[in-house]
Hints:
Blueprint: E1 2-8, E2 15-22, E3 26-32, H1 41-54, E4 62-65, E5 71-75
Parallel strand pairs: 1-3
Antiparallel strand pairs: 1-5, 2-3, 4-5
Amino acid sequence: MKLRVKVIPNARKSEIAGWEELPLQGRVLRVRLAASPVEGAANRELVAFLAKQFKVPKSQVVLEKGSTARIKQLQLPDAIELPD
Length: 84
C-alpha cells in the first residue's frame, strides 16, 4: 500500500497528528517528528516511527518519493490498518 505523509520536523515528540486534505496531493497523514531534517535524520526517524506504529519491520517501510520534501510517499505492507 502506498501512503502519503506530511512531515512536521523538530517537534517535541514523534506522533501522528491526523489526516489532512491537500489540494494537489489528496489525503495525507500528518506526522510530527522529534528529529530535525538534517542529513536524512527525519527520514530515518519517520521510517522507524511508522514501523513501530504499524508493528512491522523497518525493512517493510520504504521511502519511495520525497526524501527532501515535506510530503513523502512510502510503501507499506497491505495488511496494516491506518488510523482514522
